[in-house]
Amino acid sequence: MLNDPLFILASLSALVVLAILMLGIGSFGKGGEFNRRHANRIMRYRIAAQAVAVVLIVTFAYFHGGR
């Protein structure tokens, strides 16, 4: 599985979602001007990245589900 490019891509996309989520939670917890200006944008990026990650994971499961 680790040699499969689709698995690597799906894993990296999940890590990107995690990084964006942690950035959003961190800025929300800290508050301040950065949070006021960028909170909605960060969460929109997370939703888009999460949609890509779900599509990649489902695609991987579809192609490798019979094994």
Automatic annotation (TrEMBL):
UniProt xrefs under InterPro entries: Hypoxia_induced_domain
Transmembrane segments: 6-26, 47-65
Annotated HIG1 domain residues: 1-67
UniProt keywords, alphabetically: Membrane, Transmembrane, Transmembrane helix
Source organism, top-level taxon: Bacteria
Protein's UniProt keywords contain Transmembrane helix: yes
Protein name per its UniProtKB record: Twin transmembrane helix small protein
